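User: I want to check something. If I give you two sequences, will you return the structure for each one separately, not as a complex?

Assistant: Yes, each is folded on its own. Here is the first sequence with its structure:
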Amino acid sequence: MRLRKRLLEGALVVAVEGDLDVQAAPVFRAQVEAWLDEAPGARLVLDLRKVGLIDSTGLGALLGRYRRLSQEGLAMAIVAPPGPALAVLSMGGLTTLVPVYRSLDEALGVRAR
């Protein structure tokens, strides 16, 4: 898994490439937490266009970031996960909590609900 970050429009945009699985989830969790700490008040936009597999551990890592942000009154958005990844996010209930957008531009218009 590879992670890249950018700050755009008041959002921490994290692009995930590769699998978000039991091996990658701890790295994802630690890195995104550190980036959120460096950007207080930023909402999180996860660009999942290039994500492969998401397993239950990866889903848990995503839910954990959602919980942190919601406790801080901040929004989280997801951008264009491929079909299999979207299915896991839906089955895990994340798509009922976090909006999923077709493009990064669309997601950057997100504000806290």
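And separately, the second sequence with its own structure:
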Amino acid sequence: MAEWGFYGRAEPLAELSRVVNSGRWFFCRIEGRRRIGKTTLISHLARNNDRLSSHLIYMQVPDSDERDVAATFQRALNDSDHILARELSEHVVDFPSMAHAIGELCRVGLVIVIDEFQYFTRAALRSFSSFLQAEVDKLRNSRLPHGGLFVLGSLHADMNLLLEDAGSPLFGRLTQRIRLDHWDFEDLVSVFRSQDVRMPSQWLTLWSFFEGVPKFYHDAFEQDLYQVAPESFTDELLTRMFIRSSSPLSEEADTWFLRELRGRSLAILTFLADHPGCGHGELLTGVGSASEKTQIGGYLTALVQKYEMIVKLNPVFSDGKSRNARYYIADNFLQAWLAVAKPAREAARMKPLPRTLELARPRLATIEGYAFEKLIRKLHEESSRKGKGDFDLSSLQMGYWNRPKDATRSIEIDLVALDEAGKRVRFGSCKRSAAAHTSESLMGFEQHVADFLAARDHRHLQGWTREMFVFSTSFSNSERKHLSDKGYVARDLNDYAALF
């Protein structure tokens, strides 16, 4: 069986190395969703840097009170190999002494890592920022040639409140910011190849659940999921990762995503999981009465802006005030958990496993369809950004849709990509299965493109080179030829994997 390695992250790793080796004290924010690999990135850097590994102190902030946080930091100092850290540990009893210890350690060249930093927005912990500010100001002005402070957090709004809000004690103190995002498809291809996962249908299933979150793919490795035959892969993923009592992700969403959400917020997410891409009015109607619209709207705004759990997408060429906006759960894992994994786990308590899986498969097929559209959009962005595709992307949205009074005049296009310099426009139809690109669906696709170009706002594109693409997880040679004869370019996940 293949070993698990360190995959991707070349750019953030290089940036992290530059920060540590800059020759001056730093205060760096590392941000990214939970399980994205923030701690692993620093750990990997330390393993390859002997001085850093012996001068690094890591603590994870508990969601508790001042005494417990100070005790946690005290234990981290006790576990350090550095003599000063152990000497200071007995003096750390509260936030003032904790901040003072951080300052003293930085002055002798140590690097402090504070994980789950967003918990300092809690009322019981809020005062720490003021004590830390006093030390940070001294350190910034001392022109130290070494040492630094990393703060790691997963809640964007809370991290901003602590570090970017003008009213925060730590406002304007950061020297660097690093945002850690999902693995690119290129990184995933490296994982798939190293683990001998060859079928594009498996890639889509994994991406639909885990997107580009390294920890989840490693969990799958530890469950030997990559050794499962393709025909059993979906059932085993659900069983091993979610349904069994020992499954590693059985409580992940409730523990890390949803523990702070109750009532309407959870109802909105649950409704969106079953109705991805619904409009504003449909969403409000689906989770409450007309008299509650203002209240529900407030919860929706918080889920979009504060928690970033929901993304509001507008059709191509529209502004942010478009009435045609659609809402999706932003995170693949949360979408898959609410729509597939959680119902399957609950059903398994009362039903035999085969019946549970039978009920889950259609739900998974549905979310894979939406996930595939999202993946194709990501692939266009990634290949253009890395200069490895055949399309110099200047503008892209999920697609185009309208809301006409006459339903027969509706337009739905999965992907509209523009190359303004080359005056090319690419229209794409995404189907999870190649067989779904039927003659009827292709005729509908062509009609929607024609209606789109005929619209007054889009007539300037009529003179551009028009590309008609169809996308699926995989195409056979005969399917490619059939579609090519009809004037379409067929592109699948194997084609994109070959770019990397």
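Because they were folded independently, the notes below concern the second chain alone. The mean pLDDT is 91. Residues 353-385 form the longest helix (33 residues).
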